[in-house]
Amino acid sequence: MMKFFLSILLMVTSLQAIAAIDVYEFESPEQEQRYRHLIEELRCPKCQNQNLAGSDAGVATDLKNRTFELLQQGKSDEEIRGYLVERYGDFITYKPPVRGSTLLLWAGPFTLLLLVAVVIIWRVRRRPTEHSAAMSAEEQVRLTRILNDDLSSKG
User: Fold this and answer.
1) pLDDT for the residue numbered 37
2) Global pTM?
3) Can you give the CATH number for the domain in which 51 is found?
4) Under 8 Å between Cβ of 25 and 12
5) Local structure of residue 73 (DSSP, 8 states)
6) What count of other Cβ atoms lies within 10 Å of the Cβ of residue 81?
């Protein structure tokens, strides 16, 4: 009886594994290569930092299907990227274009690094330097008097 339940459990789990595999019929190996490249370079809108190829989310499955359909229609890689960016924004790409809305993303790290360098240089230059200036004759006499008074009071 235990073997029966184990075999049923094994069949159910294997059916789920089969259901997760995407099967597409490509016209050529080049088309399949383009598809693989696209789904690896496009980000899943739900999974934050995971590409479409590695995501099992429903929206990722829909986007993989849509990418396949657009490839079958003869669309170029740029047209497919453009279609997806138009619907999901620059977030869907790992390399957003440089424009006004993404300027902080591109320039922010360099600006911060430059600001830190300026502050460090400013603080180093502002630091007081020790000068060993020679004492005047008047200061030398005064110092000798103070030292002599100190030695005579202790002795």
Assistant:
1) 93
2) 0.55
3) 1.10.8.640
4) no
5) T
6) 17
